[in-house]
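Fold it.
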Amino acid sequence: MVDHQQELRERSIPELMKQLSEETTTLLRQEIELAKAEVTDKAKRGGLGAGALGAAGLVGLYALATLTACVIAALALAMPVWAAALIVTAVYGGVAAGLVVVGRRQLSVAMPPTPEATLETVKEDVRWAKTRWRFGRR
């Protein structure tokens, strides 16, 4: 490390500025790629959450449309029809509520779609650049 520091001290200011510019450009490209990857991942999670919420509505509708009559008819053999219908409605509502919980959990993971890891590494990069700048000015 001492050799590297000595090498930097022997280089001219224009050479050091050129190196800093090149390293900064490379670093910015890498940060942009990281941000793209992070936003894409969050968008995928958001899509999964939205899909789960849509599926909750669809499953709830199909369940009510196809099974309700059958189950109510079966329960109506042992109780009044209105009581059978109320029980079936409560069960289907519980299933739909469970799907809503899953969908909201997925959306909360995906939102807001900010590239948090990228922001943290940019802060680290700024600290690194400041350190390099101070070292080069000595």
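Residues 2-137 form one domain.
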